[in-house]
Amino acid sequence: MIRALALSLSVLALAVQAAPEQIAPANCVVAEQGWAEAALQRSLSAPLGLPPVPHPADNPPTRAKIELGRKLFFDRRLSINKTMSCAMCHVPEQGFANWELATAVGVEGRSVNRNAPTLINVGYLSPLFHDGRDVALETQFVSPMTARNEMANPSIGHVVALLGRLPDYRDLFADAFGAGPSLDRIGQALGAYQRTLVAGDSPFDRWYFGGDEAALGADAQQGFALFTGKAGCAGCHTLGDRDALFTDQLFHDTGYGRLRAAQRDNPPETVPVQVAPGVVHNLDFARVLSVSARRDPDLGRYAVTEDPADRWTFRTPGLRNLAVTPPYMHDGGFSTLAQVIDFYDRGGRPHPAQDPAIRPLGLDAGEKRALEAFLLSLTSDGLGCLVGAARTQPPDNH
Predict the structure, then answer these.
(1) Which residues pair with 273 in a beta bridge?
(2) Is residue 360 reached through a cis peptide bond, with omega within 30 degrees of 0 on the bond before it?
(3) Residue 263's CB: how many other CB atoms inside 10 A?
(4) What contacts 34, CB < 8 A, 6 or more positions away?
(5) CB contact at 8 A, 59 and 188
(6) In this structure, what are the phi and psi dihedrals at residue 314, rounded to the nearest 5 degrees?
(7) H or E element: which one contains 283?
(8) Do 384 and 18 contact (CB within 8 A), yes or no?
(9) In the chain, which stretches have pLDDT less than 50?
(10) Tens digits of per-residue pLDDT, 210-237?
(11) Domains of the chain: which residue ranges?
């Protein structure tokens, strides 16, 4: 455990120091409705700035599926030693992401190479994961539940059998499906719940799609002009006339993967580690590495396709709610939006295979601040409602 956790700490990048306040849960349940009914209606809606949530034809959402999916999402008993749940890496109060670690930590402190992405608006995405190795929420859960460095179950059949033995799931599966636990039913319930994590209606949405000229400040408006113009961000972080996911859902080599590989091969002498808010120690990196597992290179999409053209490419992330989902990049290497903007302003880490859209931007300090102001304006109202719904019941830890 110590060997794996140490390297995760070494790449912390002071994420805690940069993180905003946790999202406070709010009771936003519509009168006469329970939280699950409100969540169901949310998953069937199209909030300002977003299209309707796409639901698979063979998995229409129901209140019973959502209630079951929420319970599965928070249940630590579904890991090999009953310590880890989906919500341990996708923390509701932290934007359904994780601020404390640049890269996730699984069972017994085993390190994961990548940052835990937010699940807010995940229902709009396909493919999933930073490398696109799965295409649907109904099957995505198998990977983290069986990965040795995540929930570490020996097989997904082990999880199905476990659920069949837990009496508190008997009625929930019967209500949702009229049958007991199975691989497909687990995935359908988790998918139905995650598609309720919808959040649009940001200040930008009210300005751009709602026509409210007072909703967005002048600095953020300037930032949007840069985003779609000089900076060229909208080439990959796309938006349409009626809605915007801020991702083309394609894979690009921005130079960041190669940058991190170079840093891995040429480590610094010391690394900052935050041990408490505002308390940072610069540790000798050789000492950290001596008690750490060696981090393998991350070649991104190539690990899925084994196509040389996919080396160092990663899926374009959406940009909504960035203010509440640090740290950034596929491995959490940047703790602030300013660092991300600086990276792209420099033109990434130029090399022959880098996407030609990544180029030096020549932004001055004021333009960088304006661009950040625009990105901050993508924070949705109602995030507290998602947290409140998630925390309607205590998790199952026994």
Answers:
(1) 281
(2) no
(3) 12
(4) 63
(5) yes
(6) -135, 155
(7) strand 279-284
(8) no
(9) 1-17
(10) 999 999 999 999 999 999 999 999 999 9
(11) 2-199+382-390
Q: How far is CA 123 from the centre of its chain?
A: 12
Angle among Cα 231, 15, 134 to the nearest 5 degrees reads: 70
Burial 294-308 (b: 16+ CB within 10 A, else e): ebebbbbbbebbeee
127: tokens are: 């493919």
| Cβ pair 274, 14 in contact under 8 A | yes
pLDDT of residue 138: 98
Amino acid occupying residue 43: S
pLDDT digits (tens, 9 = 90+) for 102-113: 999 999 999 899
CA distance 289 to 113: 15
The strand pair at 270-276 and 251-252 is best described as: unpaired
What per-residue confidence (pLDDT) applies to 205? 98
Residue labelled with tokens 């059949």: 157
Residue type, 123: G
Q: Which helix (H) or strand (E) holds 103?
A: none
Q: What is the pTM of this model?
A: 0.92
The matching CATH number, chosen from 1.10.132.100, 1.10.760.10, 1.10.3210.10, 1.10.645.10, for 2-199+382-390 is 1.10.760.10
